[in-house]
Sequence to fold (386 residues):
Amino acid sequence: GRDVVPAEMSRNVSSRAWHPRRRVTGPGGDRTSEDGWRQETQKETVPQGSCLLMCPAAELREREAQRRLHRFEVLPGTERQRLPRADPTRTVKEYSRPAAGKDCTRPADLRPPAVLYRTVCYLVDNIASSAGLQPWNEVYDFVFDRLRSVRQDMVIQRVGGEACVSVLERTVRFLLYAEYRLSGEPLRCFDPQINRAHLRESLAWLLGCYQLEPGLHSNQEEFEALCLLYNLGSLDALRHALCLPEKLRGSPGVRLALAVNRAFLERNPVRLLRLARPLPFLHSCALHPHLTRCRRDLLLLYSHGLSSRNGRFPLPRLAELLGLGGGSQAAELCQAHGVEVSGDWAVFNKGSFKEAERQPGGGSSYELVGCKQGDRSLASIIHGEP
Fold:
């Protein structure tokens, strides 16, 4: 449950902690291996945080004086004052880039693992899931920045084990959900490339933690499958999945993700979209960025396979194959790709197919993704609750 602090939260640093690999120079030359990292950290004093608030006192005072508080952090009733006051229970440490001469390792500025976990739960339960905070792209920007700060504190303190896993699992779920929810937003409101880069980095970090800790983690099947679906067609992701232990590789979630990946590599969009239907909500969010290409490939395939004088196909059936809500949505997609629509029929001709200038409906997909959320709250989704 979200309110139970994982057992290893009380431990700050594990000698088995994993973080994005970095180059280490030593007598043996340049290395990016974990052994090189271990040798280097033996010579370092790993800082241990002592800040028990979500935001260090020094930063809180500085941002208060410089009017850099986010509106989600302002003490109620002081919004109209010349210098709005910070609410210590709502102010969260913001991400700051490492700068020359700036000491990022002061214990008073670092939050220990238990506080980092509590901070993530606050961001999920009180900010991301709040119906009263709008617009949601602003909510996303705030949570995205504060989660990045949490990961920065973890790297500095070499946090590992269950403490690291609990934070990264919630981070990955949030970023996956956000990419789906904001997929139709203009670039000025949401940059999918930046979100994608942080999502892939967090996912790689999480899978690295699984590898370093013995045994099967309770949520590993979920995230191994998410990795395959999000990185659909990636040979590195496929190779990683095929090297998993047999029990994990044969689990239902990973097996279905492997089948979807195979259909994608075989350029079989009909089978892929059929396999996408039983995927859970978050797995469908991971697949969502690839749906546009799959639908395009299906129309191209039918434009060649059914190209004849009588090459007609019923729109309701086509909508079902495409995973769309009805014939009107299928007709709109067909017309965007140069496929003629005559009444309730699509008329395929390989000479008329074209690339769509824009995706009808903003590229969202209620039938294959959105409807699967049901009545589940966002908090329960991000926390991984049934």
Remarks:
- DSSP finds 15 helices and five strands in the chain.
- Residues 7-34 have pLDDT under 50 and may be disordered.
- The radius of gyration is 24 Å.
- The beta strands are 24-26, 29-31, 312-314, 340-342, 345-347.
